[in-house]
Amino acid sequence: MTPQSDEDEVWRQIVASFNDTAERDSADQPWPDSENLPVEPVRRVVKPPESAEAEDGPEDDGDEGRAPASDDDEGHFQPPPPPPLPKLDLPTKLAWVALFGGPAYLLVAAMAGWRMEGWALFTAVAAFIGGFVALVVRMGDGPPNDSGWDDGAVL
Length: 155
Prior knowledge:
mainly alpha
């Protein structure tokens, strides 16, 4: 037999046993028992001792804004509200309107079947390009003004 015929025979065996199920050995799972999850998750609730609550007296003033915590909510992180968005100046607002307004007009006009004049097409495309250029130019490539004297690692 040639090496090619041996290889062909191996391939025939692989193809013939393609749909056969694998034989399971005595273990039903391929991982150790210590990695199995319990049927019901274990809940660990840590409550402060009752004597500490009695010593503190009435609720602190800082807790007035919070809703009373129930046993189900304990241990869940609730992030603080996000800071407000920065205020934009008029040129930046106009650049954003132009950036999205030009293509939006073209899309609405095309979907509505309006006949678009040449000057309207030019204005919409020019608004898009102008808004994009204005936003890129206003980005700046330097560090922020409040970064201080140390600008970090400079290579």
